[in-house]
Amino acid sequence: MNDSFARMVMKIIYVSFAVLFAALNAHAAALPPPVRDALQQAHIPLDSVGIEVRELGARRPLIGVNAEQPMNPASTMKLLTTYAALDILGPAYTWKTEAYLDGELENGVLQGNLILKGYGDPKFTIEQFWLWLRELRARGLREIHGDLVLDRSFFDLPAHDPAAFDNDPVRAYNVGPDALLLNFNTLRLRYLPDGNTLKIISEPPLEGIRLDNQLTPQTSPHPSKKGCDQWDDAIRVQPDGDSVILQGGYPGECGEREQNLSLMPHTRYVEAVFRALWQELGGTLNGKQREGVAGGNAQLFATHLSDPLSTVIRDINKFSNNVMARQLFLTLGAAASSPSAFKGEGGNHASGSIERSIQAVRGWLQKQQLDFPELVLENGAGLSRTERISPHNMALLLQSAAVHPFSAELQASLPILGVDGSVKKRLRESSAASHAHLKTGTLEGVKTIAGYVRSQGGKEWIVVFFINHANAKHGQAAQDALIEWVQGR
Question: Model-level pTM?
Fold first, then answer.
């Protein structure tokens, strides 16, 4: 390499760095000082954030920092899933779960199998299940002289490893989707300290499942709120066949506490809950639980209808329920595979898969004239290391949603700043409290917000603030500073 060529290369490199440095400085200057200062205090560099602030309906953003950069949105990806669902399915859409009799029913005795077929209801709670089983009893079913057959064929899914995301398989957020999802496949354990003893109650009750309580009550001489906030760190919960083993120490000074855990496969969970509730209702099941498909000889006996979609998305967005979002995402794929089957309440012949859902969402975006080339979808819930969307396109999505006929339903599903959901404790004493509807997202190395802010001047603003950095967990102050700045305009 001769000297003139080397100088030319160095000049190109110098100019490139100068342009990059100037761009970063321009971005920094565009940010309100409190936001810039909070990022510096959290040791989060500007190239690890993506921000877009725009007035609703405006053609150009007020603030844009790395807004075109594909970033991990964490749970703000649920905004895409729920908005698409409102448009594709409609806010009144309901899921169904069916009970079939495969045999003759006479005088309350079924000489054959009871088949339960699921269609992906995201919120089939224990209370709803109990009422439905009560209806089966009222319709004349008492004794089942056959098997309990679970038809989960509506979703075509690969095997789910609940430990794959963060090696914590019992956590409720790691529950995988299932066509026959019951009560989020979780067990609520309630810890009741009483002196030197500790009682544990499981809700719902599970027939054939034993709680092996090996916990040791512990008392700290100086209990603290912080210690009680992390009360479950020392508890180890391990499923072992038909037993659930609890080991470690429980801080008795923290009083009664509870946690929701997923401790068994979907099919075993449904069987255990069914047997417990069916026995409570005076029914009997003589056979075993097995998987199968409702064949042509089976007769439809009863149908349960879910809450409407407009209600379901409130739980998904306000409380960032991952398995519910996964269920909804898969429903979109089923709807796309057989649109005619979804005119009404659920479908009979469609089936949902991850691939169909990805195609369905991409196809829907095209129809909305939203071009998101950087978009990467995995499960539609944001519990992913691979999902990507740019802050700019998230802002355009919110812009589109704001003028949609069902915009009120989507906005009502978002947490209200300082009031409820995942932002209940944020900025509660600020003038911005109750003036913003914001979806949050949190993963290791990711902290995001996206939604709507109403300013003191009466204007509606879209705010998107993504942080992808090792120090992301310290970035809330910067996000809050931006919300307050926008709200004060």
Answer: 0.91
